[in-house]
Structure formats: C-alpha cells, structure tokens
Design a protein that fits this description.
The chain has a single domain (3-173), classed as Alpha-D-Glucose-1,6-Bisphosphate, Chain A, domain 4, CATH 3.30.530. The chain has four helices and seven strands. The chain has helices spanning 44-53, 57-70, 78-85, 146-173, and strands at 8-11, 28-36, 92-93, 96-101, 105-111, 115-124, 133-143. Strands 1-2-7-6-5-4-3 form a seven-stranded antiparallel β-sheet, with helices on both faces. The longest helix has 28 residues, at 146-173. The protein is globular. InterPro entries: DUF2867.
Length: 181
C-alpha cells in the first residue's frame, strides 16, 4: 500500500505504554496507530522528531490561533515552549518536554497551571511479523480546574485531527530509515 494511503486508526490506549496510568483521573485519552514500513526506523525518538517536524502547514496556523486565544489564560504558548528548548535540545522534541525514553517509547508532555498532559510515541511489533510494526501516538490529559476542562472540551476535536494529520504527513513524506536499512 503506498504511504499516502496508509490508514491512521483510532485504537485503545496501549496497556504497555508508560502513560496508560500516568494520572489517577484523565479528562482526555486517545490513541492513533499507523503501520510502519519494514525499513522504517523503530527508534521512537527519531520517529517523534520526524512527526513533529513534518506537520501540515495548517497545523502551524492552528497553533498560532490557539496561542493567541490562550495566552491570557495562563496556558503556555507554542512560542514560549519553543523558546525553552532551543533547536538542538535533547530534553525537548519540538515544543514538548521529554519525560522518559526507552527502546520502544518516548513520553513527551508539559505541566501547566490548568492541565498536565503526556504524549506517548510507541513502536510495537516486529518488521517481519505478520502485522508488521505499528506506531501508536497516545495522549492523556489531566485537568486541574474548570478552565482546563473547558479548554480540553474545545480543543479535543482539533487535537484528534492534528494527530491523524501528523501521522499521515509523516507517512507521505517517508519515514526515516532504520540504521543499516
């Protein structure tokens, strides 16, 4: 199947993900999966950096609108978060802080006044197996107050479209190759 037709599928939050039990209560939890080609990297950090650096142009425009709307409510803006990491920071992937890494998963996120969130980029399966490898991007959000809950209710549909679009864009661009592939 050509990469531009690789489907992105909503899936259950993977039980093996470190974010599956990150919070005692969650206000948003979702996960989306895409099949990786056999020669693609299985390094979750490489894949996360690739996904966040190859997003569709409309995602950047949507983030600028979001930033303009939330700046006065105590939520961190994309511009603020980008300034924290610098371009070569290993402690951030795009605008997200790195919380943990393993051979199969990187956990990113941010803590804020109104909400905390974690994003997992998890690579499952084996290239030669029948189902091949899957890349699962999961998000969990824990809100601290009404403003956080209102924000999540408003942005949840956009968030889901951004995740789906980001995975499709990365597939169209062509996943980074595994070392030695």
């Amino acid at each position: 199947m050509p990469p531009e037709f690789t489907p992105v599928t909503a899936v259950a939050l993977p039980a093996q993900s470190r974010i599956a039990n990150a919070y005692a209560s969650v206000n948003l939890a979702d996960a989306f999966s895409i099949r990786l080609p056999p020669n693609a990297s299985g390094d979750p950090e490489v894949l996360a950096r690739f996904i966040f650096s190859h997003q569709a142009p409309w995602v950047g425009r949507l983030m600028r609108v979001r930033d303009a709307l939330v700046a006065g409510f105590g939520l961190k803006t994309g511009k603020h978060l980008a300034a924290l990491g610098g371009s070569a920071s290993r402690s951030r992937v795009g605008i997200f802080k790195v919380y943990s890494t393993s051979a199969s998963e990187i956990v990113l996120g941010e803590d804020d006044q109104h909400l905390d969130f974690r994003v997992s980029v998890l690579c499952t399966g084996e290239p030669a197996s029948e189902g091949g490898r899957q890349l699962v991007v999961s998000t969990v959000v824990h809100c601290h107050d009404r403003l956080g809950r209102a924000y999540i209710l408003l942005i949840a549909p956009f968030h889901r479209q951004v995740v789906r679009s980001s995975l499709r864009s990365a597939a169209r661009k062509g996943w980074p190759q595994a070392t030695g592939a």
